[in-house]
Write a structure and sequence with these properties.
The protein is mostly helical. The protein contains 14 helices and no strands. The longest helix is centred in the N-terminal third of the chain and has 35 residues.
């Protein structure tokens, strides 16, 4: 009987460290951040800044273009790597390297390829044509395009691997039955693979969108905001406001301004997971 009375004590002792960690590293930062960005005057100041409007547009470009192109390519490449031939498996190992390497290494390498005069691409251009190459980080459209391409190249392998795993979970008997019925490869893709992977594809896309709204290293290391911070995204804009210009509350408000986009996506993501998860 003594053990029964001691159960609440043991439960409290066991759960207390987890509750303390959750309160200290989840609840407190969340509440403190919401408090820092609670002043409506901060958002009026943000939207009066033309650079913030440009930053918001850059973030939406990175999300809409980067995520959709990345996921479409991941779907196609997962079909390419689904083939079990040895050379494709070896190529898959090489293909995964950009995702396996630290973001700092990958994006700084790209940055030094793009810089003018001594950059790799500019040097190759000059050696071939005898003229200076494009000013990659001086033109806003070119610099923003480089950010999007770098983002796709870095994170494409991960989502390709996820969709490849989803393809491998489809029973091969379904494809064999389709082949017996005379279905071509294109018909198998349209009527078998695509419907069975639709839920997984949607959940992966929603999750990728939520992550990309907070993406920091791509814009910070590839273009470094050049030219004149016209390729900043919300994460880098908030960082500069908080640490370079000494307006931490304005930096927090810049990041919180993404909540009207992120909260509905998280709600939709959780709804999809509850309705079917990632099961085929």
């Amino acid at each position: 009987m003594g053990w029964i009375g001691a159960d609440p004590i043991y439960a409290t002792v066991f759960l207390a460290p987890y509750a303390a960690v959750f309160a200290g590293f989840v609840v407190y930062p969340l509440v403190f951040g919401l408090w820092m960005g609670s002043d409506p005057a901060l958002y009026a100041r943000l939207f009066s800044d033309p650079r913030y409007v440009t930053t918001l547009a850059n973030t939406l470009i990175l999300v809409l273009v980067g995520v959709n192109v990345k996921m479409a390519l991941a779907f196609l490449l997962s079909g390419f790597f689904f083939d079990r031939r040895w050379w494709k498996q070896a190529l898959l190992a090489v293909f995964l390297l950009p995702w396996a390497l630290p973001a700092l290494t990958v994006f700084l390498s790209m940055h030094y390829m793009l810089v003018t005069e001594w950059g790799l691409l500019d040097s190759l251009w000059r050696s071939v044509t005898g003229e200076d190459g494009p000013l990659f980080l001086v033109s806003q459209p070119i610099a923003m395009t480089c950010n999007v391409l770098a983002y796709i190249w870095k994170f494409l392998p991960f989502w390709t691997l996820v969709l490849l795993g989803a393809r491998m979970a489809i029973p091969r008997e379904i494809y064999e039955a389709a082949a017996i019925d005379g279905a071509s490869s294109a018909q198998c893709l349209r009527y078998v693979t695509a419907p069975l992977l639709a839920n997984v594809y949607l959940i992966c896309t929603l999750l990728s969108v939520v992550w990309t709204f907070g993406d920091f290293p791509t814009a910070y290391f590839v273009s470094s905001g050049a030219p004149a911070r016209l390729t900043d995204v919300l994460a880098t804009y908030g960082f500069h406001m908080a640490y370079d210009f000494g307006y931490p509350r304005l930096g927090v408000a810049a990041m919180l301004s993404a909540l009207p986009f992120v909260v509905p996506l998280v709600w939709l993501l959780m709804r999809r997971v509850r309705r079917g998860g990632v099961q085929l």
